[in-house]
Write the structure tokens for this entry.
Amino acid sequence: MTANPSWHIDPELLAGYVTGASGRASRASVESHLVTCASCRAAMAPLIATDRLDRNLAAIADRVDRPRLHLVERLLERVGVPEHVTRVLAVTPTERGAWLAGMLVALLVAVTADLFSASEVTVFAFLVAAPLLPLVGVTAAVTFRQDPLRELVAAVPTPVFKLFMMRALVVLAPTIAVAAGASMLVPGQGWEPVLWLLPSFGLIVATLALGSWFPVWAVAWTLGGAWVLAAAVWVRGAPSADLVGSYAAFRPAGQLVLLALSLLAGFVVVVRRDSFDLVDLGRTS
Amino acid sequence: MRDLRSDEVLLVAIGEQDQGALTALYQRHAPWLTARLTHRCGDSDVVDQALQDTFVAVWRKPAAYRGSGEVAAWLWGIAVRRLIDQLRRRPALAYLPAAEQTVVSAEDEVLVGLHHGELAGTLDRLSPELLSVVQATVLDGLSTREAARLLGIPTGTVKSRAARARAQLREALA
Amino acid sequence: MTATTTVELAEVTKSYGSTRALDGITVAFGRGVTGVLGPNGAGKTTLLRIVATVLAPDSGALRVLGEDPAEVRGRLSIRRRLGYFPQEPGYYANLTTFEFVDYIAILKEMTVRRARHDEVRRVLAEVGLGDATHKRIKALSGGMRRRVILAQALLGAPELLVLDEPAAGLDPEQRLRFRETVSAVAEHHTVLLSTHQTEDVTALCQRVVVIDGGRILRDATPEALVEAARGRVWLADRADPGARLSWRTGTGQHRLIGDPPAGATLAEPALEDAYLLLIGRPVGTEPDVAGSSRGR
């Protein structure tokens, strides 16, 4: 508590202190008095330039207002990503936590099964299942259903497509990283563990492309289901020792075809990007 | 409208994200902190930066004030250390302004009302190196280690110079 | 489009399945505050969403701020000059008010940080949230949360403000504050405000459009609307089953709309009376218009 001293600094002395006219000892006295006396502190206020005080206060307010950046935001800014982009990436809701956790569990199960049985069948199953997880993640990212802000966001000038792509990125980056990490643990010769990457890319881009016409979730389920079905049907009757090699999608020619189809779908997505604007909202009332 | 809350209450409010409380604290303490910092470093940009850093630090961690002593003293502790941080990045600037006023009028001493008359002259007779140690440790409240870092001398030297300064002052006042 | 109108609708319709939410709306809005008054399910929200470019009409012509929202380029141009307060605003509860409004500001293409933060501070101060910039939204009261949404609508000083029941659920003091902010903005801009509270209309609107069952019933100034009810509002000591509408007021008397029973005294009409007269039924019941039921 500031006890109010009965003695206060003479105004002239105070002014002398501010301008630097007073000597060292009186300066020391003034300073030690100021620490304990609120009214003398208040008396100093008119002696400092108002615009200087205002300027510093504005700078303080600006720094205080700045949102605290997460570690990832700071890293991204270091790399050169503009601040407004990192902010959107950080704020945008993608339910990433729950999503990543679920995905990790699924992949761990797959990998553990692989490690223990290490049979060709489980490798094949992993390669077929792995593309589905990024697909689900990206599909969730490009709908507004779970976003409480969808009405507001629909009325801003930033194209919905741009927002969707940023959200997809936020989901995709860790998803692919985890899935890729899991691939390293999968036993298989040569390129086998990463044969799922191109199918994954293809499924995602195809879903986005068709999603510009049809409801995205329906497209995702259809394409994902078709992929699994195609894999199961194709390898019927093939020797279980070489399931992976039997499936055209995992052979070099098949992978190239997938790549070509993906690029075509990507082209369609870019051309059709404006149609994402009113797609999901038209149906909500 | 003037904020009537005490400094301690303002700090609590700052802990609850009350930006009005930070503004009130600033209005009370920025003037004297600015003046006192200016007496440690003449460069007004450096002082401005240190002042801003101080209040941003208060905003981020108002709970660092442990409740003992004056809030003003705590603020000065933050401010002087922020100033030193700024000075460290600008090796060309010194902690104390080079030219020091040494003329003290007798009237000043009477007006101040404290018995510093003899001390004034004695302080001025201390050599600059002893003076800077006294300024740093006694007047500004820095620790021995901080003073050593600031002045660029070993802690042992800080202690011995402080002892010599004390001895000289005692002798002069005896 | 004339020089004074900002929004023009011509025979605009919108259906949700078999429900006709808007049934051939033709109207034009200009500067100042226009109120859209109507009961729940009247089509107010559908109309405002279409004007805010958030919803596409099934048919009809639409021009907002000189552009056609059906084209992408036009839509983006409108949105750059638009502020929208949706009927059911959502929040990211974990953000502070500053962070939330800052996020919307980024989406409104304010990419320069310093200028953007100054603008965020400005709108927050304008709605009276200057001291709450660092409070998390989940810690705010309902009234303060609505002010956050109003703040984001004011970002960039938009030419057109579309507010869908912005003051719903606010207490009278907060409502007053809302009205002050809105009328300050309306001086040079177009404000479209939907409400089912007649006091908002009387206080704020230069013009009111009464809508029910997807159709415009009346489009006039509040005064003209009130005049139309003159001679049809009475006070009596007893309820009269023959009146079109009657209810017991706080003073113990009954207010009646319609033909006067014996012994009734003429009452000075209020906007609410005119509104009820137009709607022709007590608030809360469904309209008799064929083909529409619960559409909004």
